[in-house]
Amino acid sequence: MDNNQYEHSIHHLALGRKKYPVAGSHNATHDFAMYYNFFGTGKKHEIIPYKWLAYVIRNINNTKTL
Hints:
Largest sheet: none
Distance between the termini: 44 Å
Shape: flat
Structural class: mainly alpha
Number of helices: 3
Helix content: 55-70%
Number of strands: 0
Number of domains: 1
């Protein structure tokens, strides 16, 4: 059984975890984890992070809530 694809997908998360203790606060640590999750998921779906984030920032005020 080969799990290289899975290990590769969590590699960046494991590297990011080393940075969490120097984030400065619990909220900053939570933010780090959230960003790694967003960008990691986007990479898996071949979404360019810069373009995605620029789109979100441009359109966040126009988004309707339920």
